[in-house]
Every structure is written in structure tokens, then in C-alpha cells.
Design brief:
single chain, alpha/beta, Rossmann fold, nine-stranded mixed beta sheet, disordered N terminus
Length: 336
């Protein structure tokens, strides 16, 4: 496994939960609060990369677009169904084209695919910052800057779906469960979907890569209401009418894992001790447990959920496969 892949694994392991003010239950504002375009680069005949000045993030960010047929000749009123792909813990939006090869999917030729980057360990949430708030406000960035900009200037329509790996899956589910009608379908791959259940696990992951986890979401004992605010399991009722695809490994060795094991993260010893025999990726084992819990909760609510649990760790390329498994559900929502 490459050094970059290992680093990406470590960062994805820190997928945590939201802290910060609720953004409300309305759809994204039509007039964006920022997100000024500083630069636009056409990387090939379909891939466009935008550099944004984001007040919510307190600096520049990047959004990549995989454009549909006819997009280059679009008129002001042309709109396409839009698939938003949310990055994992490293914030690297290029993973979707490099590792997951979304440009190869014929089913997306008439879909605008939007792939925002985010700050390292941004968690798709507005940081608590020890009660002070302020940047990075990653959910504000997505809901109030990226989506309105795409719909105003780049041909994105109001028919949306979303998918994310690890932290990105948490972000997609968290936003969909709190913002009614935001996405017509959501998919999450190897994601922490009930992180309050394993608070020490995610705080340890943040510390391991040099991030102050308490700045993101607060102390789980003192700021427990903030921990609960964006927990997808807690707000599963908000997904009752949204098709959901959940996928996760169980932490045991699987066919798509690399040769290098997941790194040991100090502070996770309790979860290692409690893990089932044969588990080599405690991060994915925890994600798998949380995925099972959310799946059962959604099923009990009569929600349209499909779940795929498999042998595998957090460092493999399972997202490539699981995105393709989820694609029929996602594209069906985009045809509505």
C-alpha cells in the first residue's frame, strides 16, 4: 500500500460527528453566503476544477465537477440532476476520480457530479471551537456556499443525491437527516453513523493526526447535546422517506485490503480488547457495528434502507465497489 493510501486511511479513521449550530431544516439558500470563484480550470473534456474563496472555511477551497453531456454548451436555464460526492477525513476530493474512477460510470454521463474538497479533518460540520464557533464551518460551506453556487452558475438542479466514504458518508447522512428534501437518496461507505456510541474512538483518531478533537465537537460528557445534535442514528426519523444505502466492513481481513494493516491508534485499546476474534481493523469494526445499528433503526421505522456488510477493513478500496452497488438507487432518485 502506498504512503498516500496509508495516510488517507489514518485520516478517514477520524470521521467524527458534528458540533456547532444547527443550520436549520430548510433547503440550501438560493443566494449563497460566499463561495466566490477565484479560478476555473478545465482539466480535460469533462473535469473542471474550481477554486473558491470561502468565508465559511476562512480561506480557499476546491470543488471539482464531472460534467454531463451538453454542459459546455449550456444555456442559463439548463439544469442537470446532481450527485454530490463527499470526501473522507483527508478532505481529498480527487479520490473520487483517482481511486473510485467515477468518470468511467456510463450511468453518470447525463448527471452533474460535484466533488467538494474540505479542510483536513473537517468532518462536514461546523466546528464548536471551544464554544467560540467560527471557521471552519464545513456544513455551512456545503449548504450555503457550494450547493447555491452550483445551482446558480454551474447547471446543478434541485434534484440531488449524495454519497460519501467514511467521514463523507457521515456528512451525507447527517445533513440528509436534518435538512428535509436535501437529497433524494443517500449512500455511505465505511462510515461512522452513530459516533456518540464510540466517542473515545473518534477522539483518539483526531489526536493521532494532531487535531484537537475537542475543538470540533466538544467534550462528550460536557457537550453531549452537541454530540447528539448531528448523530445520524439519533435523527434516523429524518431519513424515513429517503432511500439509503449503507455499506461497511466488519474489520476482518477482506479481498480488497492492502498488505499494510490499519495503524494502531493510541487510546483505542478498549475497543481492540472488545473486538471479535479475527478483527484487524478496529476502525472498520466500529463503523460496521454502527452501520448495523443504524440499519436496524431505519428498518424499524419502515425506511427504505439497503445494507451490505462484508469482510473488510478501513484501508481497502471497498468504496469503489460499493459506489457501483449503490448507483442504481442513486440514479433512480436523480431521474425523479
Amino acid at each position: 500500500m502506498s504512503h498516500a493510501h496509508t495516510r488517507r486511511t489514518i485520516l478517514s479513521a477520524g470521521a467524527l460527528l458534528s458540533a456547532g449550530a444547527l443550520l436549520g431544516t430548510a433547503a440550501p439558500a438560493k443566494a449563497d453566503a460566499g463561495g466566490k470563484v477565484l479560478a476555473e480550470r478545465h482539466l480535460d473534456d469533462r473535469l473542471v476544477e474550481l477554486t473558491l474563496d470561502s468565508p465559511a472555511l476562512g480561506g480557499p477551497s476546491t470543488v471539482a465537477l464531472l460534467t454531463p453531456r451538453g454542459w459546455g454548451r449550456r444555456r442559463p436555464d439548463d439544469r442537470w440532476p446532481t450527485l454530490y460526492l463527499l470526501a473522507g477525513g483527508d478532505g481529498d476530493h480527487t479520490t473520487w476520480t483517482s481511486l473510485f474512477a467515477v468518470q468511467e460510470l456510463a450511468e453518470l454521463r447525463d448527471v452533474l457530479v460535484v466533488m467538494p474538497a474540505m479542510p483536513l479533518f473537517g468532518f462536514w460540520t461546523d466546528w464548536w471551537n471551544h464554544g467560540a464557533g467560527g471557521p471552519p464551518r464545513v456544513r455551512t460551506y456545503f449548504l450555503r456556499e457550494v450547493v447555491p453556487l452550483m445551482e446558480r452558475a454551474y447547471g446543478a438542479g434541485p434534484v440531488r443525491a449524495a454519497a460519501g466514504e467514511s467521514q463523507g458518508g457521515f456528512g451525507a447522512l447527517g445533513m440528509a437527516s436534518r435538512v428535509a428534501g436535501l437529497f433524494g437518496a443517500v449512500a455511505a461507505f465505511g462510515a461512522p453513523v452513530h459516533p456518540v456510541r464510540h466517542a473515545e474512538m473518534w477522539l483518539s483518531g483526531a489526536k493521532y493526526v494532531g487535531v484537537d478533537g475537542y475543538a470540533i465537537f466538544g467534550d462528550p460528557w460536557k457537550q453531549w447535546r452537541t454530540w447528539l445534535d448531528w448523530d445520524p442514528y439519533r435523527h434516523a426519523g429524518g431519513l424515513r422517506h429517503t432511500p439509503v444505502y449503507l455499506a461497511s466492513g466488519d474489520g476482518r481481513p477482506g479481498p480488497l485490503d492492502g498488505d499494510e494493516p490499519d495503524p494502531h491508534i493510541p487510546g483505542t485499546e478498549k475497543w481492540v480488547a472488545l473486538a471479535d476474534e479475527g478483527v484487524v481493523s478496529i476502525t472498520e469494526a466500529v463503523c460496521g457495528e454502527e452501520t448495523r445499528m443504524l440499519s436496524d433503526r431505519l428498518a424499524s421505522l419502515g425506511a427504505p434502507v439497503s445494507t451490505h456488510l462484508y469482510p473488510g477493513g478501513h484501508s481497502g478500496t471497498y468504496g469503489y465497489r460499493e459506489l457501483r452497488h449503490a448507483l442504481p438507487m442513486l440514479t433512480a432518485a436523480l431521474r425523479r
